[in-house]
Amino acid sequence: MSKVEDFLTAKEEQDIVEAIRIAELNTSGEIRVHIEKTCQGNATNRALNVFHTLKMGNTKLQNAVLIYLAIQDKTFVIYGDEGINNVVEKNFWDSTKNLMQSYFKQGKFKAGLVEGIIKSGEQLKTYFPYTDSDSNELTNEISKG
User: Fold this and answer.
1) What is the mean pLDDT of each run of 10 residues along the chain (145 residues)?
2) Given this model, what pLDDT does residue 1 score?
3) Which pLDDT score, from 0 to 100, does residue 145 have?
4) Fewer Cβ in 10 A, N or C end of the chain?
5) Is the pTM above the cut of 0.85?
6) Degrees to nearest 5, angle at CA 90 with 102 and 141
7) How big is the CA angle at 126 (ends 142 and 68), to the nearest 5 degrees?
8) How would you classify the pairing of strands 75-80 and 64-70?
């Protein structure tokens, strides 16, 4: 098995998908998690590439958030689309990343991801509340590379 498959158990993956589903209940925003073994080059550039590959930039309100992890490199990036980036506080993504990192340092990867998802979902709910016309524009499943 590769490190990607060993990183989270099937139950932990289900818990993360469920956290995404719950976080998206009250918002039109979208959250995705992408995990891969290693990042070739700059992690932010790779996250942007994954963001576009997953068609996350196609959301109607440009309010998608990607949590990108490169396991072997021990790096991760939170990438928010233009719509959400224009309204959150300047340090929001850094504070979210710091929260997640505090869990990751303890080996609590599922808990760190869930906390990041919850915090992102709260901001999405604040600025992009759910309306009756909203639909789930992106799958909640974890993607792997």
Assistant:
1) 73 96 94 94 96 95 96 95 93 95 96 97 94 86 92
2) 38
3) 87
4) N
5) yes
6) 55
7) 25
8) antiparallel
Dump the DSSP string for the chain. Answer: --HHHHHS-HHHHHHHHHHHHHHHTTBS-EEEEEEES--SS-HHHHHHHHHHHTTGGGSTTS-EEEEEEETTTTEEEEEE-HHHHTTS-TTHHHHHHHHHHHHHTTT-HHHHHHHHHHHHHHHHHHHSB--TT----S--SPEE-
Q: What is the pLDDT of residue 46?
A: 97
Listed as own residue / partner, the contacts of 135-141 with beta carbons closer than 8 Å and 24 or more positions apart are 136/24, 136/30, 137/30, 137/58, 137/59, 137/60, 137/64, 138/30, 138/32, 138/54, 138/55, 138/56, 138/59, 138/64, 139/32, 140/17, 140/20, 140/21, 140/24, 140/31, 140/32, 141/17
pLDDT at position 15 is 97
Q: What are phi and psi of 140, to 5 degrees?
A: -90, -5
